[in-house]
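Hi R.,

Here's the chain you asked about this morning:
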Amino acid sequence: MPAIDPAPAVPAAEQTIDAFDLRQLRAPPDARFSAVRPRCPEARSGEIVVCAPDPERERLRPLPEGYDIPEGPPRLEMKLDETTSADVHLEAQVFPNGTVSNRLMVGLKKRF
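And here is the predicted structure, written out as C-alpha cells:
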C-alpha cells in the first residue's frame, strides 16, 4: 500500500498565489458551498492585510464605584423543593494546637 500518492504536476503558470481561487474548486455534485463575503478590505499588490476581532468588544470594564465584593469564595446553594435546600461551601477550622483544617462542607436545610 503506498503511503501517499504523489501530487499531480501543476504547470508553472498556475503555481503563483494569484492563481488560487476557491470559486474554481471542482467539487462533487452533492457538495454545498456558499460564498462568504470577506470581512477585510481587499489588499493591493504587495500589501498584507491583517484582520482581527475588535478587542473593545471583549474587554472587561472596571466595576462601578460602590460595588461590594464579598469576602471568600461564593456559596453554592440549590433549592430542592418548597422547604428544602442544599448547599456546598468552604470552611476553615482552627484547632487549639494551631492546626488549620480546610473543609468542603455540604449542607442540607429544611424549613418547618
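One quick note: The radius of gyration is 32 Å.

Cheers,
M.
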